[in-house]
Design goal:
It is a single chain. This protein is α+β, with helices and mostly antiparallel strands. It is built from 10 helices and 8 strands. The strands form 2 sheets. A 6-stranded antiparallel sheet has the order 5-4-3-8-7-6, sandwiched between helices. It has a two-stranded antiparallel sheet with strand order 1-2. Helix 2 crosses helix 4. The longest helix is centred in the last third of the chain and has 21 residues. It is elongated, with a radius of gyration of 22 Å. It starts with 9 loop residues before the first helix and ends in a 9-residue tail after the last helix.
Length: 279
């Protein structure tokens, strides 16, 4: 049986291919300038010319020439007080335009399609609403026997991989309050309803980065899910893979989790987000 994993993941590879740009001579300067902007964006305290040139692997003279060009367009600025370069106001304006225009459903859809093709199972995008998760978009498996969730349908957070993935990356006090105060309905014999057990499960998910559902929502159904983050490190959605236990045995269930985590990371990057634990 063919396995799929995060290492050499087809999802990750296809995402890279979609974003990879050729840099012939006429646009190499642009590619270098964008690399400089990316590094400046990672350092709120700014970087000296020497530090920046080292990071982007360019000569200081080349780096300085590109920086001064960016400065004239207000995408970079040099602080007179400490001689450090920082992003300029036009970078903020451009980023704000992206935030206003982005649509997480449309951003996630291509990676979800890749994830469905890689795993052979249905992929879903969930959002939270109070103590439930809501399925917003789905890419169906081509198998005759496949997992299906109603678009717009509400499902209890505690019994879903997507729900547990979202719970794990909420503010810890918020998640604890929801778990301790929730009415955890038992949907199957495997549904986790005990408060202490659910708290331990969420802590385990937080450590792994993904959640599993082993017939907790429905008998004969297994799922894996991982959160998608915004630019503030908030979990705003979760992507999941769902399939019948007849195909998702233990090994393939774990492999699906690895592939789902890679897909969630790719969508987070496309969405302009950052993981909760990133610096």
């Amino acid at each position: 049986m063919t396995q799929f994993s995060v290492k050499g993941s087809a999802v990750l590879q296809k995402t890279i291919e979609r974003h990879e740009e050729k840099t012939p001579g006429q646009v190499r300067a642009l590619a270098r300038a964008l690399t400089i902007l990316r590094e400046l964006g990672r350092e709120p305290a700014g970087l000296t010319l020497t530090e920046l040139s080292h990071r982007v692997h360019l000569a200081p003279s080349t780096t300085h020439r590109l920086l001064t060009t960016l400065e004239t367009q207000r995408f970079a600025r040099l602080s007179a007080s400490d001689s450090r370069w920082r992003v300029g106001v036009e970078t903020f304006s451009t980023g704000a335009a992206f935030v206003r225009a982005r649509d997480i459903v449309e951003i996630a859809r291509p990676t979800m399609a890749d994830l469905c093709q890689e795993t052979g199972e249905t992929t879903n995008l969930f959002f939270t609403d109070l103590t439930d998760v809501v399925c917003m978009v789905q890419v169906e498996s081509h198998h005759q026997m496949r997992a299906m969730f109603a678009i717009g349908g509400r499902l209890p957070m505690h019994a879903m991989a997507a729900g547990k993935a979202m719970l794990a990356f909420m503010r810890e006090e918020t998640a604890t309050r929801m778990i301790r105060g929730g009415n955890h309905v038992k949907l199957t014999e495997r549904t986790i309803t005990a408060t202490d057990q659910l708290l331990r499960e969420v802590e385990d998910v937080r450590g792994k980065g993904y959640a599993l559902d082993n017939e907790e929502h429905a008998v004969g159904l297994r799922c894996a899910a991982a959160p998608i983050f915004d630019e503030f490190g908030n979990a705003v959605a979760a992507v999941s893979v769902a399939g019948p236990t007849a195909r998702l045995d233990t090994a393939r269930h774990q492999a699906a989790a690895d592939a789902t985590l890679a897909a969630a990371q790719a969508i987070t990057t496309d969405f302009g987000g950052r993981p909760a634990n990133s610096q």
